[in-house]
Amino acid sequence: MAELHVELVAADRQVWSGQASLVVARTTSGDIGIMPGHQPLLGVLETGSITIRTTGESGEGTVVAAVHGGFVSFADDKLSLLAEIAELSDEIDVQRAERALEKAKAEADAAAERRADVRLRAVAGVH
Amino acid sequence: MGAQTRVYKRRIKSVSSTKKITRAMEMIAASRIVKAQRRVAASEPYATELTRAVTAVAHGSNTEHWLTTEVERPTRAAVLLITSDRGLAGGYNSNVIKEAERLTNRLVGEGREVLHYVVGSKGSAYYKFRDRPIEQSWTGFTDNPTYADAKMVSEPLIEAIKADTAAKGGVDELHIVFTEFVSMMTQTPRGDRMLPLSFEKSAEESAEVLSKGSQVLPLFDFEPSADEVLDALLPRYVESRVYNALLQSAASKHAATRRAMKAATDNADELIKTLTRLANAARQAEITQEISEIVGGASALADASAGSDR
């Protein structure tokens, strides 16, 4: 089966890289699913979670990451996800995110609330 | 102990304690270079992917955008100068400041007004001492810059280039002057134009991308639209360039400090050697003098007693 090579990079490090059969990301105009053979694409990412269905060398499974702003660029079966901040679901500190969510709610900071919410959703695996 | 020897001993002691300090600073700088180098390497994937994306938009779309088109008669340019907060780094700061001055003179010569943005207290002190206006300056993070710092620095720059040039503080061009970390031994100051993207530069970049991918850049589909993607992409491009420049400058600063401190330690070694020789000679001279005094005294006594016998 065809696969795509995915590079998930944050500004200061490489977060994840490997083979995948499907990547779902949230762009400003809605969720987009990318499979091998997709047309070359460049899109702006929203704060949201990214789901990577891994395959091949990376093993069958799902990798979920929370990203806060960034871009998705796809050309000849190479997909790059660029984010200023990106965290894999198992790197996220749930308690810290919960505290951040409460604090954001108390201060009515919509952006911070959304960020914390995305982190928690990524851990729970809900899109 | 004679006065001369005591003076030498005291100087040797003070030089050795200075040597201990410079040696420690050398070691600290050496360990920091490795760390800084690792951070430069870690930021590379993001920068490469971003450059690829920018090149793709610049070439894969025919939209005219304020960030990619050259102004016919640019009247104002912003220059971001990256220096360090602390000295003791040899020619590091003066070299990068000299490069900035060269660039400023060239821009002024071409009829542009130059606005200065400065990172690091050494740079801002240079301009303040000469009573020249600085648009904005930042200090406190030059040793260990984070992405948030790069964002903070980029923000007014992006705002300035977005603004109309006729308005106060608006600029047509964005330049950056920093010290490139070539290797452990070589760091070169360089001035680059960040925006508008220069054509030779992007041609070079696309040639690089082409040689890597060994095929023509594909036509891209933009989500939501080419304009909006550019609007979002180019500020990130500036931030990433600034971040990379900050990291390289930090690594260069540590390398320069290491080299300066190594030279200082070597000089201290040399000085201690010379002083020890002088101290030894002084001690020897003292002994010789004492012996000749004793011998002289003894023979004078012998002469005196021989005279009384007669």
TrEMBL record, chain A:
InterPro entries for the chain: ATP_synth_F1_dsu/esu, ATP_synth_F1_dsu/esu_N, ATPsynth_dsu/esu_N
UniProt key word tRNA-binding: no
Domain (ATP synthase F1 complex delta/epsilon subunit N-terminal) ranges: 4-85
NCBIfam families in the record: ATP_synt_epsi (TIGR01216), PRK13442.1 (NF009977)
Function noted in UniProt: Produces ATP from ADP in the presence of a proton gradient across the membrane.
Binding partners and assembly: F-type ATPases have 2 components, CF(1) - the catalytic core - and CF(0) - the membrane proton channel. CF(1) has five subunits: alpha(3), beta(3), gamma(1), delta(1), epsilon(1). CF(0) has three main subunits: a, b and c.
Family: Belongs to the ATPase epsilon chain family.
Descriptive protein name: ATP synthase epsilon chain
Record lineage: Bacteria, Bacillati, Actinomycetota, Actinomycetes, Kitasatosporales
From TrEMBL, chain B:
Keywords: ATP synthesis, Cell membrane, CF(1), Coiled coil, Hydrogen ion transport, Ion transport, Membrane, Transport
Gene Ontology cellular component list: plasma membrane; proton-transporting ATP synthase complex
Alphabetized InterPro entries for the sequence: ATP_synth_F1_ATPase_gsu, ATP_synth_F1_gsu, ATP_synth_F1_gsu_CS
SUPFAM superfamilies, A to Z: ATP synthase (F1-ATPase), gamma subunit
Coiled-coil segments on the chain, per record: 261-288
Entries under PROSITE patterns matching the protein: ATPASE_GAMMA
Localization: Cell membrane; Membrane
Primary localization: membrane
Listed GO MF terms: ATP binding; proton-transporting ATP synthase activity, rotational mechanism
UniProt xrefs under CDD domains: F1-ATPase_gamma
Biological process per Gene Ontology, one example term: proton motive force-driven plasma membrane ATP synthesis
Topology in the lipid bilayer: Peripheral membrane protein
Similarity comment text for this entry: Belongs to the ATPase gamma chain family.
Its biological purpose: Produces ATP from ADP in the presence of a proton gradient across the membrane. The gamma chain is believed to be important in regulating ATPase activity and the flow of protons through the CF(0) complex.
Subunit structure: F-type ATPases have 2 components, CF(1) - the catalytic core - and CF(0) - the membrane proton channel. CF(1) has five subunits: alpha(3), beta(3), gamma(1), delta(1), epsilon(1). CF(0) has three main subunits: a, b and c.
Protein name according to UniProt: ATP synthase gamma chain
Organism expressing this protein natively: Streptomyces oceani
